[in-house]
């Protein structure tokens, strides 16, 4: 008998993590210090991108991506209804219009065929971009999306919050890491406690586009630049006196666009760096847990569907679809197993229903929502705890 709460996700903070955070707090910098760039470089290397920009959270990352890509009022952007609301909200922050396309009922990912139907039904130029989501840790085939996007002149933001360490195989059978930006213009990650890498809060944007990278750096910090090559005011103005000097004073900076304070702190970056060292180990443990779930539930009559074992899956979540989801959910909670629902379809949130979205618009997403349940999935979940979860699920359906 296990007499403690088993959540669907949990952070793993080691003594080494604690030590590096203490060291960062005791250093000269709590924010805007060297740990930020160190974390950015290490993360870019981890996913295989050229650039990385650390930010305060995943939602900030999405917002900055939309701003960097110049999303404006009336721009139409396609995304999935099965995601956390931030994937869609970033478009609304900029005044754009969110257009949902249904999911593939087997993969739970945004269905590229549904997206193609939307694009083919309207004149070119109607849509500006696509935000596919690596839901639960399963990598979207971004090579296929890139080909489709190029036909219609669209940009791509990959929401890879669930999938650091995930990958898909391209047409040449080469592994393409989530967030490497070989096919997406920008990719984003979250460092929320239940994610693979925990910073408390935090996010990262990756890209291979230097122009977008520089825009992100400015937008992250109030739209301010301290790069002399970018200054537009004169040296005389900067010095506040007429002078023959060609040197800008050390204090000088320019706000050149309307930005935000979306910075990550140094102690969060230090924690992220420490967690990154164990990322590969964490992925392997998640895949082992997923394999146990898969083998146990495969072919069971009460299982209507499940995540399955997929090469490159990062397993942020392990999702099953079941009969009587509410009954099982309550039974598990009664046994201190806090499974979760990911997600209520975005198009049926009251905010989005005001734009005309309604039940029946996304039948695959809505069917999925009626049955889905995310089981406990985190690297420190023990064999005993997982067996307890499985036993309680089977016990419920035997009754």
Kindly describe this structure:
- With 399 residues, this protein is of the alpha/beta class.
- Helix content is 37%, strand content 15%.
- The protein is built from 14 helices and 16 strands.
- Strands 2-10-9-6-5-3-4 form a seven-stranded mixed sheet, with helices on both faces.
- Helix 1 runs antiparallel to helix 9, helix 2 runs parallel beside helix 9 and helix 3 packs across helix 7.
- The two termini are 19 Å apart.
- 46% of the residues are buried.
Secondary structure topology:
Elements: E1 6-7, H1 15-25, H2 34-47, E2 51-55, H3 58-68, E3 76-79, H4 86-93, E4 97-100, H5 112-120, E5 127-131, H6 142-152, E6 155-159, E7 167-169, E8 175-177, E9 186-190, E10 203-207, H7 210-220, E11 224-225, H8 235-239, E12 254-255, H9 266-276, H10 279-297, E13 303-306, E14 318-322, H11 325-334, E15 337-338, H12 350-353, H13 363-371, E16 372-375, H14 383-398
Parallel strand pairs: 1-15, 3-4, 3-5, 5-6, 6-9
Antiparallel strand pairs: 2-10, 7-8, 9-10, 11-12, 13-14, 14-16
Helix pairs in contact: 1-9, 2-9, 3-4, 3-7
Structural class: alpha/beta
Q: Percentage of helical residues? A: 25-40%
Question: How many structural units, i.e. domains?
Answer: 3
Strand order in space, largest sheet: 2-10-9-6-5-3-4
By CATH, the superfamily of the largest domain comes out as Type I PLP-dependent aspartate aminotransferase-like (Major domain)
* Helix/strand order, N-terminal first: EHHEHEHEHEHEEEEEHEHEHHEEHEHHEH
Q: Over the alpha carbons, how many angstroms does the gyration radius reach?
A: 23 Å
Assigned CATH architecture of the largest domain:
3-Layer(aba) Sandwich
Largest sheet: 7 strands, mixed
Strand content: 15-25%
Number of strands: 16
CATH C-level class of the largest domain is Alpha Beta
- The N- to C-terminal Cα distance equals 19 Å
In one word, what is the shape? Answer: globular
* CATH topological fold name of the largest domain: Aspartate Aminotransferase, domain 2
- Number of discrete helical segments: 14
């Amino acid at each position: 008998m296990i007499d403690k709460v088993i959540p669907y996700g949990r952070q793993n903070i080691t003594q080494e993590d604690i030590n590096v955070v203490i060291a960062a707090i005791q250093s000269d910098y709590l924010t805007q210090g060297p740990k930020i760039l160190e974390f950015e470089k290490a993360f870019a290397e981890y996913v295989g991108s050229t650039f990385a920009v650390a930010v305060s959270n995943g939602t900030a990352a999405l917002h900055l991506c939309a701003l960097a890509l110049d999303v404006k009022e009336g721009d139409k952007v396609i995304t999935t209804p099965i995601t956390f609301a931030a994937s869609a909200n970033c478009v609304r922050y900029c005044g754009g219009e969110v257009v949902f396309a249904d999911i593939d009922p087997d993969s739970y990912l945004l269905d590229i065929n549904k997206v193609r139907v939307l694009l083919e039904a309207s004149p070119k130029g109607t849509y500006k971009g696509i935000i596919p989501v690596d839901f639960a840790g399963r990598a979207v085939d971004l090579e296929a999306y890139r080909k489709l996007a190029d036909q219609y002149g669209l940009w791509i933001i990959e929401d890879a919050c669930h999938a650091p360490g995930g990958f898909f195989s391209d047409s040449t059978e080469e592994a393409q890491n989530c967030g490497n930006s070989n096919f997406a213009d920008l990719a984003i990650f979250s460092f929320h406690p239940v994610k693979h890498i925990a910073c408390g809060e935090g996010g990262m944007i990756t890209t291979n586009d230097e122009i977008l990278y520089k825009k992100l750096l400015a937008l992250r910090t109030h739209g301010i630049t301290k790069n002399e090559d970018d200054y537009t005011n004169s040296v005389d103005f900067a010095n506040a006196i007429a002078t023959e000097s060609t040197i800008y004073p050390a204090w000088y900076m320019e706000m050149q666009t309307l930005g935000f304070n979306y910075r990550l702190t140094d102690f969060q970056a230090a924690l992220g760096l420490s967690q990154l060292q164990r990322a590969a180990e964490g992925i392997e443990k998640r895949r082992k847990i997923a394999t146990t779930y898969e083998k146990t539930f495969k072919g069971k009559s009460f299982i209507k569907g499940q995540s399955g074992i997929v090469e490159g899956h990062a397993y942020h979540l392990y999702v099953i679809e079941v009969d009587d989801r509410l009954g099982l959910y309550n039974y598990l909670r009664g046994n201190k197993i806090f499974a979760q629902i990911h997600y209520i379809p975005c198009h049926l949130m009251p905010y989005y229903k005001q734009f005309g979205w309604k039940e029946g618009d996304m039948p695959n997403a809505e069917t999925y929502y009626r049955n889905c349940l995310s089981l406990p999935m985190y690297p420190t979940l023990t064999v005993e705890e997982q067996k307890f979860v499985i036993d309680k699920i089977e016990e419920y359906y035997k009754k």
